[in-house]
Structure of dolichyl-P-Man:Man5GlcNAc2-PP-dolichol alpha-1,3-mannosyltransferase:
Amino acid sequence: MGRNPSRSTKTLIDRFKISKGKFAFLLLCLDAILVALIISYVPYTKIDWDAYMSQVDGFLSGERDYSKLKGDTGPLVYPAGFLYVYSLVKFITGGLVFPAQILFGILYIVNLALVQFIYIRTDVVPWWVFGLLSLSKRVHSIFVLRLFNDCFAMTFLHSSMALLLCQKWYLALLLFSGAVSIKMNVLLFAPPLLLLMLKGLSFEGVLLSLLGACLLQISLGFPFLSSYPMEYISRAFNLGRVFIHFWSVNFKFVPEKVFVSKEFASALLFLHLTTLLVFAHYKWSKYEGGLIFLLRTWLKDTVSKLASFQLFSCKSRLRMLNNEHIVTVMFVGNFIGIVFARSLHYQFYSWYFYSLPFLLWKTTFPTFIRLILFAGVELCWNVYPSTFYSSLLLLCIHLCILWGLWMAPVEPSYVGEKKSHTKD
């Protein structure tokens, strides 16, 4: 008798999953060797390290006025978590660059392992695509040659996402809050994360998760909030900062006068929020009947519990979300923010590089088009300084990927839910 086709297919898939794990481990080992070679033979680039150490020295010496914590690149503009993390880094390395590079090399490998875990749990890309995660010259530089705080922020963020895939909501929100306390770019993930919380948690779950995240922010900032609160809030959470036009990688083709204007910033913010809402309604909440219906159902359930005095008597989880849906919503939501960000400096590439293979394989583009788009993004980020044409090309590639994501099939929201065969 012939072999059962479905059983043979299942066995083949299982082998591929094992192959992914083995290939991922091999990549970690090879990348660790590459990182060691980079640290040993490529000259370190002095950018922000001395400024970080100066700001940490002020903090460790007892200064709690954020307006007086400065370095050679200017005043401190990151939340308090940054100070705690780099105080620990200074303690471990003695403030020396070479030991810090080794520490950041380890951080790079830990972050890569977390991203690989996310990819394996979603099973969106084939095994060989994992190799793309180790091919960025710019990202290697950001971690071990520049020592930027973006590296810690994104490692915390990827840790939070890994916990979401394990359905550890409360701990995931704490790590997410910790990532925000290191650098605020993580807030680009906040709108999609909130949507996932509404889909996966009841009112009490959402409330307790947000409460824990807020308490962590208050605890980390307490030494500054209790002494110079306005100085801390205005500098650590300044959402209106205007970056220098010359150093921007995106929208460099826009005249500087327009680039720094409030009108341009407002237009980009409008496009960002509108695109988020459109994706949230038509893509991410499709299986629930749209965003409005999802919110209405969630609020109705909450009011019903309030009326029956059962708000905190039931489990805080509603239904188990599909892993692919979690990662899709998080990565696409962040990518939308990247597309419409007025200014992206070179270290900001780490904010979304690790999501690119996932996003490209979520589209229905042919594989060679995906690879061209991936290479195009990497090329644009390695043009220094950014030019009119490299910046314009980057925006075109971003918009092309965004269009591909919009046209892609919608994955089920919940575990056990069958994929819809209807067109988007």
Observations:
- Confidence is low (pLDDT under 50) at residues 8-14.
- Residues 203 and 269 are 29 Å apart (CA to CA).
- Residues 18-407 form one domain.
- The longest strand covers residues 70-71.
